[in-house]
Amino acid sequence: MSFATEENITDIATARWATCHDPRLRELMTTLVKHAHAFIREVEPTHEEWLAATEYLAAVGQISDEKRKEFILLSDVLGISMLVVMQNGRKPSGATPDTVLGPFHIEESPILEQGADMAGELPGEPVYLSGTVRDHDGNPVAGAELDIWQADQEGAYEAQIPDCGPRLRALQYTDSEGRYGFWTIAPKGYAIPMDGPVGALISQTDISYFRPAHIHFLLTAPGFQPVVTHLFREGAEYIDNDVVFGAKRELVVPFRAQPAGTVISGQKIERDFLTVDYDFVLVRAQNLVEESLPADVAG
Length: 299
Ligand code: BEZ
Ligand code: FE
Fold this sequence. Notes:
The chain is of the alpha+beta class. Helix content is about 25%, strand content about 20%.
């Protein structure tokens, strides 16, 4: 055992964490120590700066609770959430890509029958979303669960509204032909929560703190990899500058204008509205994705 010096402290600290009993934790901790030390060696923080950094992380924790997930938001705006999503979501081309879960998903939403309205009396442009859930060979997936959630016209999610019952969120199951279909209101772009430590940091930059208009989906079906994704409105503001890096070309869909009198599921609609058609493509759970990996990763 030697005394720590500025030169050898990184090696000593790394070796100490190499005693982790679990091999994966050992890898995580030794690599974390190595990179954190490299960061400190590069930026050489003052005592005040390092104290401010620890107080900042404490503030991120203090504002967080069951509904407010400030650490997820921090990870989102740093691009880390999307990097993890992309590393874990390598799929064959044609499969619906994943994007960020975000901080506003709520478990156990009410069930929405085919053709029903998720928005109730809330104001907004009516839109009918429909399509199928299919496997990678084009076969319909019956009984797939679509967990759907979105913000209202002011950009507010239910999770941000105190004492609010289920609002703009639902579960729908595909029919025997893999079809889904429901009414809602067209989403709008919105600002991420700016009233906490993440907002305070972003406010010290020129970073746009908006997300392009989207609806969230979490798709699950027995035997398939779950998909956490969004559908983005084509032409939406911020589509090419999403603050959380979540927008993807394959997930941008047209919201087509339909005149009053158009028939949907045998019913004449007496007002102007929009339609979105999108077929989700799931990948089987055991399907490794060698074909979508770069040659040096696939080996
Ligand atoms: C969302 O889309 O709900 C979201 C995602 C990341 C950060 C903030 C909001
Ligand atoms: Fe969202």
